[in-house]
Write a structure and sequence with these properties.
single chain; 163 residues; mainly alpha; 3-stranded antiparallel β-sheet; 7 helices; 3 strands; 10% strand; globular
Amino acid sequence: MEDVIRNLGFLCLGSRLKRVGERLQADTQQIMDEVGVGIASGQYPLLAALDRLGPLSVGDLAEALGVSQPGVTRSLSQLALLDLVQIQSIPGDQRRKAASLSTKGERLIAQAKAEVWPRIENAVIDLCGGLGGSLLAQLAAIEDGLAERPLSRRGSDTSGKKP
């Protein structure tokens, strides 16, 4: 079957990038499930931002991640239900909220830094390590590489060396 999105080149670049992103997210989720992390892979960047930057308002968190405020609010609500973040009103403005990692969230981030993030990073390095040429050729190589061997079967060496 013809891969129409791939064959339309730059015309469908956004769709192609979305497809690659969705595949990377799904493969990342598989790795997280194997490790026993109980959150969606798309929520990790939010926790990572709070870990790197400290407590942030919803607006600042949305800006730091480049996503919408309603999306951040939904994710924060889900993470608060899991006791991974704490959400408080900002003093002087009850309409604005700030989020910070809870103790449980800090433990999850520590586990991620030790067990999950190095594995995912090494897997993506393995996937992209030999890329060269034009952007479209690189995307094709990434897609082919993911089809051949998903992230969960790549980069299991967390020493930082290319597998």
